[in-house]
C-alpha cells in the first residue's frame, strides 16, 4: 500500500475559546469527559475564573484543515504561577530561579483547577487522528519556543498520550490518585459485601451516624432540580472551606451559575441540610463512564459527614447510573478505607534549559519508582476481602 498524503493544515493560537465553534471543539474532545467540553472551558473564561488577572491566559492551540475545519485542539494557558494545577512544581520553580533563571511565565496544557485524567491532545476520531494529535503537540511545543517560556507542562493526560509525549522527547512524570471501581454492583450493599468484615462494619457505622443518629438530610440534585438557591449555598461552603484549606478559592460565583445554566444534566450536587438549612455540599460532574468528585465545603462540622457526602453518596450515584468508576480528585490515602484504590496519574514536561532538564529527568526517574512502590504497597492494603494482606488501619 502506498503512502497516504496528509492534507495541508494550519496550526494557530486562539486566545478566547468563545471564538472557537463549540461543535467543532466538541467533535475533537469527544463526549466522555465533561471538563474538556467547550461548555465547561467557556464557563471558566466567561465567568472570569480564568483570565490574565488570575494568572491563567488562554492560549489554545488549534489545527485546521484547508476548509478551516477543526482537526485537533489543545486547551493551553500561559501561567504566571503554579496554583490551581495540582502538579506541585514549586520546588522546580525555586531551584530554577535560585540558579538565576526565570521560571514564570510557563505554559500549562490542562483543564484549569481540575486534577482529572483525560485527553489533552484533542482530535477527531478518524484515520488521521494520531497524526493530528502529533501536530497539536508540535504546535504547543512551538508556542513554548516562540514565547521563550521556561517550560511546557501537560498534566493529567492519558497514559497513551503520556507515552506519545515521551516518544517525542518530553520528560515523563507520574503521580497517584484514588478511584472507586464499579464491579457491576446492583446496590451499595453489594459493594459492602466485597469488603473485609471490619471495613464493612466501619462504613455502616459511619453512614448510620449520619442517616439514623442525626437530624441531617442528604440529597443529590441534578438537571432541572438544581436551583440558584443550591448554588448560593454551595458557593458559601466552597469559599469558607477553600479559604481555610487552600488560602485562595479559584472559582467565582458566576462560574457555578453558568454551569447550572449550560450543563446541569452533567452535575450531581450532593447537599446536606439540618433543620431546613443547607450545611454542606459536594460537587460532582457526570461523564459517560465515570463520576468525578470535584469540590467540597461545609459550614458545620459533623463527624463522618465529609465521608458520606463526598464518597458514599458518589458510590451510590455511580451504581444507580451504571457508571464504571468514581474519581475522587487529588490527595487522600484516607480514601483507601472507603473502597477507593490507588491508580497512576501522568504528566509530561518540556523544559527549555538543557542542564535544568537533565536535573529534572534524574529526579523523575526516582520519583516514578517511589510512586510505583507506593501504589503497590497501598494496593495490598485495600479494604477488599481478596486482598493479600488484611488492612491495618489505612
Describe it for me?
- The protein is α+β, with helices and mostly antiparallel strands.
- The protein has 2 domains: 204 residues, Aminopeptidase, CATH 3.40.630.30; 141 residues, Aminopeptidase, CATH 3.40.630.
- Helices cover 37% and strands 24% of the residues.
- The chain is built from 11 helices and 15 strands.
- Strands 2-5-6-8-15-9-14-13-12-11-10 form an 11-stranded mixed β-sheet. The protein has a 4-stranded antiparallel β-sheet with strand order 1-3-4-7.
- Helix 8 crosses helix 9.
- The chain is globular.
- The chain starts with 8 loop residues before the first strand and ends in a 15-residue tail after the last helix.
- The N terminus and C terminus are likely disordered.
Descriptive tags:
394 residues, alpha+beta, Aminopeptidase, 15 strands, globular, disordered C terminus
Amino acid at each position: 500500500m502506498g503512502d497516504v498524503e496528509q492534507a495541508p493544515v494550519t496550526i494557530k493560537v486562539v486566545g478566547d475559546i468563545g471564538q472557537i465553534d463549540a461543535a467543532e471543539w466538541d467533535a475533537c474532545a469527544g463526549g466522555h469527559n465533561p471538563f474538556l467540553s467547550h461548555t465547561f472551558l467557556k464557563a471558566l473564561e466567561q465567568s472570569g475564573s480564568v483570565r490574565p488577572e488570575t494568572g491563567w491566559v488562554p492560549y489554545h492551540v488549534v489545527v485546521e484543515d484547508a476548509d478551516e475545519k477543526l482537526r485537533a485542539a489543545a486547551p493551553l494557558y500561559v501561567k504566571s504561577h503554579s496554583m490551581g494545577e495540582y502538579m506541585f512544581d514549586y520546588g522546580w520553580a525555586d531551584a530554577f530561579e535560585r540558579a538565576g533563571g526565570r521560571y514564570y511565565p510557563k505554559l500549562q496544557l490542562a483543564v484549569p483547577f481540575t486534577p482529572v485524567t483525560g485527553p489533552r491532545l484533542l482530535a477527531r476520531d478518524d484515520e488521521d487522528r494520531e497524526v493530528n494529535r502529533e501536530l497539536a503537540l508540535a504546535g504547543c511545543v512551538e508556542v513554548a519556543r516562540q514565547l521563550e517560556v521556561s517550560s511546557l507542562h501537560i498534566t493529567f493526560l492519558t497514559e497513551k498520550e503520556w507515552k506519545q509525549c515521551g516518544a517525542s522527547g518530553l520528560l515523563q512524570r507520574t503521580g497517584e490518585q484514588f478511584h472507586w471501581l464499579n464491579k457491576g454492583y446492583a446496590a451499595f450493599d453489594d459493594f459492602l459485601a466485597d469488603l473485609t468484615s471490619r471495613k464493612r462494619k466501619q462504613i455502616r457505622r459511619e453512614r448510620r451516624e449520619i442517616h439514623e443518629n442525626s437530624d441531617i438530610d442528604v440529597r443529590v440534585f441534578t438537571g432541572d432540580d438544581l436551583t440558584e438557591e443550591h448554588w448560593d449555598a454551595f458557593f458559601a461552603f466552597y469559599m469558607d472551606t477553600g479559604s481555610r484549606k487552600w488560602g485562595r478559592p479559584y472559582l467565582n460565583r458566576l462560574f457555578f451559575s453558568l454551569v447550572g445554566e449550560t450543563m446541569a444534566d452533567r452535575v450531581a450536587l450532593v447537599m446536606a441540610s439540618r433543620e431546613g438549612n443547607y450545611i454542606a455540599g459536594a460537587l460532582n460532574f457526570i461523564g459517560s463512564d465515570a463520576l468525578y468528585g470535584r469540590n467540597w465545603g461545609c459550614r458545620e462540622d459533623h463527624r463522618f459527614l465529609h465521608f458520606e457526602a463526598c464518597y458514599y453518596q458518589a458510590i451510590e450515584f455511580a451504581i444507580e447510573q451504571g457508571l464504571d468508576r468514581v474519581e475522587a480528585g487529588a490527595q487522600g490515602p484516607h480514601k483507601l478505607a472507603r473502597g477507593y484504590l490507588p491508580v497512576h496519574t501522568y504528566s509530561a514536561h518540556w523544559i527549555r534549559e538543557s542542564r535544568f532538564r537533565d536535573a529534572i529527568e534524574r529526579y523523575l526517574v526516582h520519583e516514578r519508582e517511589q510512586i510505583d512502590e507506593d501504589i503497590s504497597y497501598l494496593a495490598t492494603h485495600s479494604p477488599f476481602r481478596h486482598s493479600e494482606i488484611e488492612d491495618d488501619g489505612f
